[in-house]
Amino acid sequence: MIDHSESSPLYRQLQERILDSIHNGTLKPGDKLPTELELSETNNVSRVTVRAALDSLTSEGYLVRIPGKGTFITKDKIKKNVVETIGFSDTCKLQNKVPGAKVIKCVIEDATVSDQEHLGLMPGDKVINIERIRYADNVPVSVEYSRFPSSFSFLLQEDLNNISLYDILKNKHKITFGISRKYIVMEFASFDVATYLNIEEGYPLLCIKSTVCNPDGQKIHRSKQLILGDRFELIV
Questions:
Q1: Sequence-separated (6 or more) residues with CB below 8 Å from residue 227
Q2: In this structure, are residues 70 and 33 in contact, taking their beta carbons and an 8 Å threshold?
Q3: Nearest-CA neighbor of 180 among 146, 143, 205, 217?
Q4: How far apart are CA 115 and CA 132, in angstroms?
């Protein structure tokens, strides 16, 4: 029980109780916590105290809050090496997770100024824009945006749901990958992204931007990944 006579703050005591339950296996990855009211009544503390404990554990990556569903123990983080050119699907498989993908958009668009700069295109050129939600063990963890020169228009004929885009490029179309330059920044979830990932609008996300080339230095595509930080561990 929470000891009100101790000098340790009540929220810290509750936080440590939850951590103990996680470490000893009483609470397992994916388990749903009781509601704030239930935790308040069970531990004889205020809901403000409960909220402070849960906020701290969420910021440390032990919990994830899904609006309308509740607070859950986070599953093991996905370790992603941002130095290597390796796709999301292979990253999941290396960690015994089942990758998934749902296409949001797959269209031809006018190249933007950024496309021209990063892909070496000219004004008036077209790009293939592919946007997908990425899943690990059926849980949405990332939104992926990929933009290719128009020479990759064959991708418009491919079914890109629940399949590795890199596998299609490498195995079916014999495209090889060389270096890629990546930038990692923080971005906040828009309404659309929040809906895709079952999070609140404005939720902080890791944003990885990259441009991928073949071994000869020819630009293949530029990408942007918006990632739930509490589900990924980046390796550099």
A1: 80, 141, 142, 205, 206, 207, 208
A2: yes
A3: 217
A4: 19
The predicted structure's pLDDT at residue 76: 58
Residue-wise pLDDT tens digits, 78-102? 544 444 445 666 666 666 677 889 9
Q: What pTM did the predictor assign?
A: 0.62
Name which of 15, 92, 20, 22 is nearest 59 in CA terms. Answer: 15
**Chain position carrying tokens 């918006």:** 226
What per-residue confidence (pLDDT) applies to 38?
93
For 128-178, what is each residue's pLDDT tens digit?
999 999 888 888 888 999 999 999 999 999 999 998 888 899 889 998 887
Q: Is 68 helix (H, G, I), strand (E, B) or coil?
A: coil
The Cα–Cα gap between 215 and 218 comes to 7
Task: Give alpha helix (H) positions in 44-152.
Answer: 47-59, 88-94, 113-119
Angle between helices 47-59 and 36-43 (to 10 degrees): 120
Q: For residue 73, give the nearest of 143, 120, 22 by alpha carbon.
A: 22
| Residue partners of 161: CB distance under 8 A and separation at least 6 | 101, 102, 103
More confident residue, 57 or 107: 107
Round to whole Å and give the CA distance between 143 and 159: 17
